[in-house]
Amino acid sequence: MTRKKIVAGNWKLNTSLVEGKELMSQLKNRIDIPGVKSIVIPPFTHLESAVNIFKDSGIEIGAQDCSKFENGAYTGEISANLLSEMGISYVIIGHSERRAYFGEEEPLLVEKIIMALKHRLTPIYCVGETLDQREDDLHFDVVKSQIENGLFSFSEEELKNCVIAYEPVWAIGTGKTASPEQAQEIHAYIRSVIADKYGDLAADITILYGGSVNDTNANALFSQPDIDGGLVGGASLKADAFEVIIRALASL
Ligand code: PGA
């Protein structure tokens, strides 16, 4: 089994550069923990500092998005090749905030994943249902179609290099976490959807849970058999809490 244990901290649009450097300096000595891949995903403007601060550590750096283009007249875009050139190794694709606020849908997300893989970035592809969809009992269908439309055009070799994050939209930044059982149910389902198309490969895919992961619920979530780690927003902005979350995964 080649599943990795990963905790990724998605800072979103938070911290000034000064604050961000301070937080990264605190994290440097605390989250380089054997057995877990710790990833820090700050705003684009902080990436160069991240590369310098984490250079002699095992901590990896991610970006929150990348362009579907490599270069050219695309004002405001940041390409996967530019990120890769800097030493960035992960990129979030299709976070629910990008889907909701920037209209990103699967055909675009597929193009972004193609670019990420081409430039040796590991995409962290996000899926998850809204509250309405869960209340209407549509969560399995929604997640299935996000997985199929986002990932099923890729080969086995390509899919092996992708990480999936299940993030129920109703749990993001709301303090409402999916219960460990609710999260496990969907994680196992995602693995079964992948198994239907790719067979044994499904057992090797890393699937992270995201949505109000914190230092008190991390252990119970990560103890579930199909949860391989977390994509953490708010709690990744506090060095103490983020360290506890990573240690919870390392201890399992
Ligand atoms: P949250 O965010 O931990 O603040 O809920 C998670 C995410 O959006 O990745």
What does this structure look like?
With 252 residues, the chain is of the alpha/beta class. It is 41% helix and 14% strand. It contains eleven helices and eight strands. It has an eight-stranded parallel barrel with strand order 1-2-3-4-5-6-7-8, surrounded by five helices. Helix 5 crosses helix 7. The longest helix has 19 residues. The two termini are 16 Å apart. The site of 2-phosphoglycolic acid has 13 residues, from strand 8.
Give a quick summary of the entry.
By secondary structure, the chain is of the alpha/beta class. The protein is built from eleven helices and eight strands.
Give a quick set of tags describing it.
252 residues, alpha/beta, binds 2-phosphoglycolic acid
SSE blueprint and pairings:
Layout: E1 6-10, H1 17-28, E2 37-41, H2 47-53, E3 60-63, H3 80-86, E4 90-93, H4 96-102, H5 106-118, E5 122-127, H6 131-135, H7 139-151, H8 156-159, E6 163-166, H9 180-198, E7 207-210, H10 218-222, E8 229-232, H11 239-250
Helix pairs in contact: 5-7, 7-9
This protein binds 2-phosphoglycolic acid.
2-phosphoglycolic acid binds at residues 10, 167, 172-173, 210-213, 231-235.
